[in-house]
Design brief:
Keywords: Membrane, Transmembrane, Transmembrane helix. With 104 residues, the protein is mainly alpha-helical. The protein has a domain of 70 residues. A hairpin with a 2-residue loop joins β1 and β2.
Amino acid sequence: MAFQLGIISFVYLAVWIPLSIAQLGQIYIDSTFLLIQSDTFNFLVYIVPLVLPMVCLMSMPELIKKLKTLIFRQHHGIIIPFNNQSVQQNNKIYPLRMIPIEQY
């Protein structure tokens, strides 16, 4: 819980500190201090709500394990011989027949 709070605080600080420095610089140093970058800093504020759900999900290790198993699930295939011989199923022998493929 503290780890999640620390990450969320870091995201907010990473966005608001540059914006605050630029605005304080414009007030006290020069009116053109970081003027070009101030638009970019203003738009960074809107990224925080978009990033927060991903940050919260990344801080839950049990959920990450579940997501990895769902996304990277390995499908175990079964290899079955296919030839013109017979196949034995349930102690009965069935001849295999070739099914012709229709041509278009």
